[in-house]
Amino acid sequence: MNRLLLALLLFATPAAAQDTSALYDLRILGLKLGEMRIVGRVAGGTYQAKSQFYTTGVTGALSGASFTARSTGRATTRGLIPQSYSEDINTGKRETSARLSYRNGAPRVTGGTLAAEEDRLDPATQRGTLDPMTTLFEALRLQPRDGLCQLDLTTFDGARRSSFQLTERAENGASVTCSGRYTRLQGFSDSAMRRQTVFPFSITYTPMA
Question: What is the mean pLDDT of each run of 10 residues along the chain (209 residues)?
């Protein structure tokens, strides 16, 4: 299985307000697939985050692909709790979108092309899950060194359920590399589940200057 590497992430001592603004490389087997920019802020018991991904220097099926996502919600001592989520995806061949809102921890599909899909999982059964942007922000935002590599999150994108885990830790000087896996759980097509269900990845964090 191919392993996804996200490089040049940062960790920092937490402050009253935490701002994240960084550009990350996404690579598979050393080949750069694209770049992802994440901008977010945690302050006053709330958070907001936005990510943009676009391919760079690749050809074939991924050429011209892009992804934009936004989320807002509450920041608690237990983690981030989403209140709204939006995504717009262009695979180079197809464009899709989704809009979600949350009430008492339960997601609700409120718009986008996803709202018209009939074979998606029932959002009412997905209470307590995170949206994809909130999951990314939990992993990629500025965070203290001692808290790295300790994530076990369940994600629901409005149609499909998956898990995101960071469990293994390796230190190299000032840097910390976390290894984990993304796992497809429910709502995916039979062909997608036959192709691959588990996707290993690693994230390398480096301290702020």
Answer: 47 62 76 85 95 74 80 94 96 89 95 83 95 93 85 95 95 90 95 94 80
Nearest CA to 5 among 179, 174, 206, 196? 179
CA distance 10 to 175: 9
Site of tokens 């009430």: 103
Strands 198-207, 4-11: pairing is parallel
Q: Which two tokens stand for residue 175?
A: 């840097």
How many structural domains comprise the chain?
1
Checking 18-22 for CB contacts under 8 A at 24+ apart, the result is 18/42, 18/43, 18/141, 18/142, 19/142, 20/49, 20/137, 20/140, 20/141, 20/142, 22/140
Model confidence, pTM: 0.86
Per-residue tokens: 169: 């830790």
Find the largest Cα–Cα distance for the chain. Answer: 50
| Residue 200 belongs to domain spanning | 4-207
Can you say whether the dihedral through the CA atoms of 3, 182, 24, 79 is positive or negative? Answer: negative
Q: Which residues contact 93 (CB under 8 A, 6 or more apart)?
A: 61
- CA 2 from chain center: how many Å? 18
Model pLDDT, residue 10:
53
136: which 2 tokens?
């990314």
